[in-house]
Design brief:
It is built from ten helices and 17 strands. With 369 residues, it is an alpha/beta fold. The structure holds zinc ion (2 copies).
Length: 369
């Protein structure tokens, strides 16, 4: 029998101090479940939320990608493969919910990540709606939320180490259509950039150049598969010339922008070879504009540039399978560099903002892990 109330971190408004409130246990309709939270991540989006840079229904319970143990269900539940999900199973879930499959973007454009009806745990649900964020002792799985069981060989900490960056990176690498042996540059070495490097390497890329800062993150990118790294203190023209030397003087086949810096988009267009591909996935909030030169950087270059927004269930499903298969080769688990209980959630946000942790995680029930 679940406890009658559960503690959760509440972000009351932009730039307001976090607090902890108690929430009633939801009654579980058929198809619903209650998770006892093991881990919920803290990502750059949470920092943006706290600074009011995204339009969300404050107060909210933050935490979009999480792992938990099924504590109770509202009746029989199965995953997409027909396997039973039962009490005691360790699961994660697609934080995006209620994609309608009934609108222009879902059905005609077939771009479900642009469905206007989608809801996201920890972001677009208000705390008034209940336990719908991961920085909480328990998370309410509403009917229809897509849960994925973590296979026994996948440590929960390995999956959460990748976190939502893992899923974003998989979508971006899919869009980049990396072919065997192609050169790839990844701009930005935060959680998204690190997973882009790992997936580029698993895709059979040749030279993989990681560009970013600080230096320990560049060193970590090497363990993810980067073959060359450039610190941002190397002047830009030197980085560009070095990348050219590595690629027969042409420039890089594929550039993935995962930094969130507007300047990086312009740099990506300078690094890519003629006829190459650029994927932009680092700009989840408005960090400002940048000037591009349409003749030299786009038209004459015959370059393909794609923006990557959100992720779908298929990315999420494959991200679980990929971390299970390759978690011993690609050290996602070691990306977790800060672990915080609910009462220290402010410190966790600060660690991510100050980049002292690549990935901070909230552990609402530290006795369970
Ligand atoms: Zn829709
Ligand atoms: Zn995130």
């Amino acid at each position: 029998m679940p406890a009658s109330t559960h503690a959760a971190v509440v972000m009351p408004a932009a730039d307001a101090p976090l607090r902890i409130d108690a929430f009633e246990t939801p009654s579980l309709a058929p198809g619903a479940a209650l998770l006892r939270t093991l881990y919920s991540e803290v990502c750059g989006t949470d920092v943006h939320l706290h600074h009011g840079k995204l339009d969300v229904p404050f107060p909210i319970i933050p935490g979009h990608v999480s792992v938990g143990v099924v504590e109770a269900t509202g009746g029989p539940l199965t995953d997409v493969e027909g396997n039973t999900i039962k009490e005691g199973d360790v699961v994660t879930f697609l934080d995006v919910h209620e994609t309608c499959n009934n609108c222009y973007y879902c059905l005609v454009a077939r771009q479900p990540t642009k469905c206007p009806r989608r809801k996201v745990y920890g972001i677009t649900y208000s705390a008034r709606d209940g336990l719908l964020g991961g920085w909480a002792e328990a998370i309410w799985m509403k009917p229809g939320v897509k849960m994925v069981k973590l296979p026994p060989e996948l440590e929960p900490e390995t999956f959460i180490g990748g976190g939502c960056g893992l899923v974003t990176a998989l979508h971006a690498v899919d869009m980049a259509e990396i072919r065997l042996g192609e050169s790839v540059a990844v701009l930005g070495v935060g959680p998204v950039g690190q997973s882009c490097v790992a997936f580029a390497s698993l895709s059979g890329a040749g030279e993989i150049v990681a560009i970013g800062a600080p230096r320990p993150r560049l060193e970590f990118a090497r363990t993810m598969g980067a073959t060359t790294t450039f610190d941002l203190d190397v002047p830009e023209h030197e980085r560009r010339e070095s990348a050219r030397r590595l690629t027969g003087g042409r420039g890089v086949d594929v550039v993935i922008e995962a930094s969130g810096a507007p300047e990086a988009v312009r740099q990506a267009l300078d690094l890519v070879r003629d006829g190459g591909r650029v994927v932009v996935c680092g700009h989840y909030t408005d960090n400002g504009a940048v000037e591009v030169h349409p003749h030299w950087q786009l038209n004459r270059k015959h370059v393909e540039i794609k923006g990557c927004w959100g992720s779908r269930y298929d990315h999420f499903h494959r991200a679980v399978a990929l971390t299970a298969r390759y978690g011993s080769q690609k050290p996602w688990r070691e990306m977790v560099s800060g672990r915080f209980t609910l009462d220290r959630a402010s410190e966790a946000l600060h660690a991510v903002e100050e980049r002292t942790a690549i990935k901070a995680v909230i552990m609402p029930n530290p006795g369970l892990v």
